[in-house]
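We were asked to recover a plausible sequence for a given structure. The inputs and outputs are reproduced exactly as logged, with field labels preserved.

PROBLEM: sequence recovery
POSITIONS: 433
GIVEN STRUCTURE:
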């Protein structure tokens, strides 16, 4: 199944609240003929656009090939949460890779968060950036776990996290599902598509060229890299694969380690005064389930709620109904609220929920598998690959040293594995295990 077209119309943004509240530019032309570049980038999401911006600012001739539109994939459809550190919590990361490597990864994660904020300020990207992300406790045991995590981050990393008991957290998020939580005030949330479109404008202003409607069919890595679409070719000194969940068959080594999954988001009708019964402060929230629910209020007073597991790669017929079920578990009083928009998107995960950055050829770099932590990590990965191409590879090499195992059975077994895993973990969530 070609996920580029399995659930979407070619080069048409999904009918999301994000698209409805963005200034969508005219479609850029497709690649035609044979062109030359210093660097060819496949994919115009956060990774590819950030790499293009930083390389163009360094004076490199950059061409970006995008099958659909800039920000079309997960970069323009996600929950908009700009988290701290890496996707995996630091105590677990320390056990996985050791304290020294974990500390370097934490610092890089903080660099990623700062990079997004700096890019928004530098390029005047109007994407409603706001501070604060909360993580919820769904049991008394979860409260203790979050408190221990906050203590660890304060002691080991000198990083403050606000801990809230049940009453304090209910004053912020009055859901009966939660027993407390923590808030990271240096984390943030934003309008993801407006951020992606702002990156695209900045990259073009710096001199990069973006071709839309230009799906890559083949890559010839011999000598100078030759990238072929249906209507043209790019010959380049370097290639960046920035496809994430839409890589397809372009590279087997990457496909074996990065699994596409679908996620779904709904936007309710504006809640008016009832918005305070969802969130009393303008923060984003993620819960502690394996199949994560995440939500925040939009700038026009809607609840943007992400959730609902997927057992295959086709989007369900009724995405709104799929998202409404977990939404009502968290906020029972919203059982009858209208849902004005509902959409799906394809992201990518790895076995350890940490990104996969790699040199897959003498002149080919790749980054993907952000596992739901892509707003900062993907943007930063683009910058790290741009730096590596210019001979400054310390940050890239630190990320690339993360052990990334292939999924059992490789790319061919990903679909049945996805169904099995999501069934098991959703059952655990419902049983409270």
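RECOVERED SEQUENCE:
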């Amino acid at each position: 199944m070609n996920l580029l077209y399995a659930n979407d119309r070619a080069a048409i943004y999904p009918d999301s609240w994000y698209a409805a509240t963005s200034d969508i530019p005219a479609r850029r032309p497709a690649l035609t003929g044979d062109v030359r570049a210093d660097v060819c980038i496949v994919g115009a999401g956060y990774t590819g656009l950030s790499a293009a911006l930083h390389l163009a600012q360094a004076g490199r001739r950059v061409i970006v090939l995008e099958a659909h539109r800039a920000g079309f994939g997960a970069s323009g459809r996600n929950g908009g949460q700009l988290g701290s550190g890496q996707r995996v919590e630091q105590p677990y990361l320390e056990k996985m890779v050791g304290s020294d490597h974990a500390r370097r990864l934490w610092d890089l994660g903080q660099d990623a968060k700062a990079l997004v904020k700096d890019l928004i300020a530098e390029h005047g990207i109007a994407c409603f950036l706001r501070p604060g992300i909360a993580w919820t406790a769904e049991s008394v045991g979860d409260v203790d776990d979050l408190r221990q995590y906050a203590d660890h981050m304060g002691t080991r990393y000198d990083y403050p996290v606000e801990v809230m008991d049940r009453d304090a957290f209910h004053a912020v998020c009055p859901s009966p599902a939660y027993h407390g939580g923590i808030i990271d005030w240096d984390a943030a949330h934003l309008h993801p598509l407006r951020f992606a479109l702002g990156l695209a404008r900045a990259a073009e202003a710096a001199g990069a060229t973006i071709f839309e409607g230009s799906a890559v069919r083949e890559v010839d890595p011999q000598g100078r890299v030759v990238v072929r679409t249906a209507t043209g070719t790019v010959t380049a000194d370097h290639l960046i694969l920035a496809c994430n969940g839409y890589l397809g068959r372009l590279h087997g080594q990457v496909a074996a380690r990065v699994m596409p999954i679908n996620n779904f988001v709904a936007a309710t009708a504006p809640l008016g005064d009832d918005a305070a019964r969802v969130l009393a402060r303008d923060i984003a929230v993620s819960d502690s389930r394996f199949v994560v629910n995440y939500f925040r209020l939009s700038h026009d007073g809607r609840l943007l709620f992400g959730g609902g597991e997927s057992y295959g790669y086709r989007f369900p017929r009724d995405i709104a109904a799929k998202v409404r079920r977990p939404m009502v578990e968290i906020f029972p009083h919203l059982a009858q609220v209208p849902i004005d928009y509902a959409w799906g998107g394809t992201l990518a995960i790895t076995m350890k929920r940490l990104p996969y950055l790699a040199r897959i050829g003498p002149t080919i770099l790749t980054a993907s598998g952000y596992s739901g932590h892509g707003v900062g990590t993907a943007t930063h990965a683009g910058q790290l690959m741009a730096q590596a191409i210019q001979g400054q590879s310390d940050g890239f090499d630190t990320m690339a040293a993360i052990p990334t195992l292939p999924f059992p059975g490789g790319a061919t077994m990903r679909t049945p594995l996805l169904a099995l895993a999501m069934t098991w973990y959703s059952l655990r969530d419902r049983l409270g295990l």
